[in-house]
Amino acid sequence: MGQAKKKVLVVDDDQDDLKMISMILEPEGYEVVTAENGVEALQKVESADPDVILLDVMMPELDGFAACDKLKSSPESQGIPIVLLTGVAKQITKTKYPIDGVLRAQAEEYLEKPVDPEELLRVVASFLR
Prior knowledge:
Layout lengths: L6 E5 L3 H11 L5 E5 L2 H11 L3 E5 L7 H9 L9 E5 L12 H6 L4 E4 L4 H10 L3
Parallel strand pairs: 1-2, 1-3, 3-4, 4-5
Helix pairs in contact: 2-3
């Protein structure tokens, strides 16, 4: 029997982004679980027990920073590596998501969107060794 697949929780309110990231990860043997906002992400963490979380910053209900804080302050999920995905670096001054928010968040890493597939796979793999 082979090893269990590593599980990646992808949280993004954009269906196209969810599909694209799934299409990058699944052929590499990862099991992808998706959530469309921070609230759903917190529920999925409990049920799915992911190995890594990819978390979009700009989402309704509970944004990536708030979800990251909640995950990192919970004993059940604080050990799960979080990669923030942000499309806001370019227009950072015009949004309520300042770059220092990305740096202050307790995420292990952050990637700019659109995500570079090789970079994404490299970062995910680096947390699963």
